[in-house]
Amino acid sequence: YPDYPDAFAGWNFVSSIGAYIAGLSVLIFLYVLYRTVTSPLSVAANYWGEGATTLEWSLPSPPPFHTYEELPRIR
C-alpha cells in the first residue's frame, strides 16, 4: 500500500478519477478508429455543401494523383 500522509488522500482520489477518464477516452478513440477503418463509406466530394468554394473542396475525394499541372489562380 502507498505510504504517504493522509492529507494527500483527496488528491489521490482526484488523480484516480482522472486516470479512469483518460482510460475511457482511449477506449472511445480505439472504437472510433476501428469504425473508421472498417467502414466502406467515404466523404462526398464537397461535404460542406455549395457554400464551401475553397480550393480543397473543388476536387473529388480522394484527390487524384498530380491534381494540377500548374497552380490554380485563387481569387
Give structural notes.
With 75 residues, this protein is an all-alpha fold. It contains one helix and no strands. It has one helix at 9-38. The chain is elongated, with a radius of gyration of 24 Å.
Main sheet overview:
none
Structural class: mainly alpha
Helix and strand string, N-terminal first? H
| Mean pLDDT over all positions | 86
State which percent range the strand residues make up: under 5%
Number of strands: 0
Query: Oligomeric status of the shown chains?
Result: single chain
Uncertain stretches of 5 or more adjacent residues: none
Radius of gyration: 24 Å
| Count of alpha and pi helical runs | 1
Q: Based on Cα principal axes, name the global outline.
A: elongated
Helix content: 40-55%
Q: How far do the termini sit from each other?
A: 67 Å
Quick take:
With 75 residues, this protein is mostly helical.
Tell me the layout of helices and strands.
Elements: H1 9-38
Describe the structure using short key phrases.
single chain; 75 residues; mainly alpha
